[in-house]
Each structure stands twice: as structure tokens, then as C-alpha cells.
From TrEMBL:
Domain CobB/CobQ-like glutamine amidotransferase: 8-199
Listed pathway(s): Cell wall biogenesis; peptidoglycan biosynthesis
Subunit structure: Forms a heterodimer with MurT.
GO biological process: cell wall organization; cobalamin biosynthetic process; peptidoglycan biosynthetic process; regulation of cell shape
Similarity comment text for this entry: Belongs to the CobB/CobQ family. GatD subfamily.
Function: The lipid II isoglutaminyl synthase complex catalyzes the formation of alpha-D-isoglutamine in the cell wall lipid II stem peptide. The GatD subunit catalyzes the hydrolysis of glutamine to glutamate and ammonia. The resulting ammonia molecule is channeled to the active site of MurT.
Record organism: Rothia koreensis
Catalytic activity field: beta-D-GlcNAc-(1->4)-Mur2Ac(oyl-L-Ala-gamma-D-Glu-L-Lys-D-Ala-D-Ala)-di-trans,octa-cis-undecaprenyl diphosphate + L-glutamine + ATP + H2O = beta-D-GlcNAc-(1->4)-Mur2Ac(oyl-L-Ala-D-isoglutaminyl-L-Lys-D-Ala-D-Ala)-di-trans,octa-cis-undecaprenyl diphosphate + L-glutamate + ADP + phosphate + H(+); L-glutamine + H2O = L-glutamate + NH4(+)
Protein name: Lipid II isoglutaminyl synthase (glutamine-hydrolyzing) subunit GatD
HAMAP family the record matches: Lipid_II_synth_GatD
Active-site residues, as the UniProt record annotates them: C95, H192
């Protein structure tokens, strides 16, 4: 086995993992293996000792109640997360954690959950739920396919980079065609599915930046992505 090992941290899998987000961690690990890198997967839940030496962070979605459960702990570790992001640690946060990585989330019931401000964005709850297959076009990742299921409407601050532009589905909100957000090497998105098995270019992005940050270089392998390409085509062709 290679001596080069990436530590993948799954953030709050007990409370923020209701949309198959574990699939992103598994896919990311297997993608790293395909590039000749070993992986160590570590789960972190409230009350655990936070592993500050992680190389990639992956966080998932959850109900409003789950966000309330982890809110205090998230703020406790926020300084470490901000420092890691600023130093180039790659992260992928989906749905509920995407919202809490912004400035704040006001639920449909009026409860205000303060975020950690990694993204200059805010989210407001709505009575309407945005559900269905979604396709976005990204300058860096090409056509990205997933499945959205959220009632929160996220609005990015001026100058915040979106992950992509929705060509099918809604994305961040009902008022513009943006989907997701990016800062440093942190990606936030509403795309479930799970996202990474169908979109290996995003996995490669996370692995590359983690390897370059930890080892100083990254030598990608040539990988046959024909099955992922086909899965993306089929998913994109399905009705909302």
C-alpha cells in the first residue's frame, strides 16, 4: 500500500446524513485509491475530539432539527474550519451544512440559526419545497448532475462565486439561476444523488488539492469514466 494517505473527515454523519451523503465519502475514497492514494475515513459528531489534521472534509444534509443539534458544536470548531479553508483544505458541504457554512439560516418557523460565515450567503426557509433532478453547467466541472430536495432558499453575497448555473431545476433559490457556492477550495451545493459518483471531476478536484497541500504534488491516474458519464446522461434525461 502506498505510504501517501489522505484523511477524509465526514462531518456530523449522525445528524447530517439523511440524503445518502455517505455515498460521497465512499466515492471520494475510491477515487483517491484509483489515483494511487490510500485513505483514512474519520467520522466526527458533537462531543468527539475534532481531528484537526484532516485533509478533505465532507458534510451532508439534514432536517432543521439536525441543524439545531449540531449548531453549537459547529461554532465551537468554526475557527479550525476557517483556518483550514484559508490554508487550502478542500471541503464539500451539501444542503444543510451548505446553509450553515453561510452567515445564517432563518427557518420557515422563524428560528434563526447562525452560520459560521465561510460563505457570504444567507438562507431563508420557504413553504415550497424544491425537489427533482437538477443539471448545472460549471466553468470548471462541465455538466454537473444531481438531485435537489430543499425548502431553504440561499442567496449569495455580491462577488461570491457560484458552483454553476442551473439549466434544469432551481438551484439556490427561485430568483436567479445560480447553484452552490465556492470559496478557497470549499464547495457548497444542494445537489444530492449522491453528487460525487456521477461527477468524478469534482472528486478529482478535492483529491488534487488535498494531495498538493499535503504532499506538494499530485500525479493523476488515467481513469475510465464511461460509466459515470453514462449515469450522468441518464440522470439528466429524467423528468423533474
Amino acid at each position: 500500500m502506498t505510504e501517501k494517505t489522505l484523511k477524509i473527515l465526514q462531518l456530523y454523519p449522525r445528524d447530517m446524513n439523511i440524503y445518502g451523503d455517505w455515498g460521497n465519502v465512499l466515492s471520494l475514497s475510491r477515487r483517491a485509491h484509483a489515483h494511487g492514494l490510500a485513505t483514512e475515513i474519520v467520522d466526527y459528531n458533537p462531543g468527539d475530539i475534532f481531528p484537526e489534521d484532516f485533509d478533505i472534509l465532507v458534510g451532508g444534509g439534514g432536517q432543521d432539527s439536525g441543524q439545531t443539534v449540531i449548531q453549537d458544536d459547529l461554532h465551537r470548531i468554526a475557527p479550525v474550519l476557517r483556518s483550514a479553508a484559508e490554508s487550502g483544505a478542500p471541503m464539500l458541504v451539501i444542503c444543510g451544512l451548505y446553509q450553515l457554512f453561510g452567515n445564517q439560516f432563518t427557518t420557515v418557523g422563524g428560528e434563526v440559526l447562525q452560520g459560521i460565515g465561510l460563505f457570504d450567503a444567507h438562507t431563508v426557509g420557504s413553504e415550497e419545497r424544491l425537489i427533482g433532478n437538477i443539471v448545472i453547467e460549471s466553468e470548471e466541472f462541465g455538466t454537473v448532475v444531481g438531485y435537489e430536495n430543499h425548502s431553504g432558499l440561499t442567496y449569495l453575497g455580491d462577488g461570491v462565486e457560484r458552483l454553476g448555473t442551473a439549466t434544469k431545476g432551481e438551484g439556490n433559490n427561485l430568483d436567479d439561476d445560480g447553484e452552490g457556492a465556492r470559496v478557497h477550495h470549499v464547495i457548497g451545493s444542494y445537489l444530492h444523488g449522491s453528487l460525487l459518483p456521477k461527477n468524478p471531476r469534482i472528486s478529482d478536484y478535492l483529491v488534487r488539492h488535498a494531495a498538493e497541500r499535503k504532499f506538494g504534488s499530485f500525479e493523476p491516474a488515467k481513469i475510465d469514466d464511461s460509466l459515470a458519464d453514462r449515469a450522468r446522461e441518464v440522470a439528466a434525461s429524467r423528468p423533474r
